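Structural biology now treats backbone shape like a language. To illustrate, our science desk offers a sequence and the tokens encoding its fold:
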Amino acid sequence: MSFDKLQHLGFSIGIELPLDNDWSQDGQHKRVKAGRPFGVPDMRLHKERIQLADRLGFSTAWVRDVPLYDPQFGDAAQVFEAFTYLGYLAGVTENILLGTAAIVLPLRQPWLVKKAANTTAELSHERLILGVASGDRPSEYPLFGVDYESRGQLFREAIDIIKDQSNTALTEGQKIYPEVDKFPVYVAGLAQQSPEWIGKNLDGWLAYPGTPTEHQQRVALWRKVAGLKPYVSFIHLDLVADIDAPITRQRFGIKTGVNGLIKELESMKAAGVDHIGLHFRTNERPIEESMTDIANSVLSSFHQR
């Protein structure tokens, strides 16, 4: 099994890109004025914001793999192609881990995924966490000439290639360069597999957002099939200026102040969650202010020195 830097951090807090609040009221106003479709963020400050997250001490930056923008889903994620973007982020950051949440394996040639992941791991000095999935947007599959119903089998075949550090399918003398294979492979959801198969073959679980109680139930299943492998999830956060603002639950997350966020993260940790990625697209305040408040008042309560 590959060395997993995230697992060795203990409970940690990261961010999910894009670092834009285009789903907030102010963000929606700016989006309409700029003529961008819903779900297409403003990426002009993406470099400055990821570098700020790196300096502030967030543990991990997660990028999504959205090959095709579909207005019915209404989300272009961070716009840029995932591996290309991670290569760029590796060059402009120093410490923050770089994760995919998650590469849609049935839509990609698995040997090229392996080479791209090896390259990203090498260029980032082993900061890569390769999150993978079977995909959940049927409209993408015809464009790629892939049968949607076959995605479970294609996912298993891709995992066999990516996780095979000996590259047994290659003929004598063939190589995949760079020769790295020093990255953990996490899965989003169950990818059309059984929990037992996922627990045996993958190194961590990217669980969908939920309440601490919901995570407690999911963590129990994960521990049963995977032991102490990392359990990761995400919170869509609207961090208000009033530090004592109570927790108000919203779709996939919460609206609260710093103290409410600390309380929620404590509950997540108690439920057995190992890592939370914070998603700021519904955040009404400027992203920089919220990240700085979290760094000053929250990270030190959880991150091990």
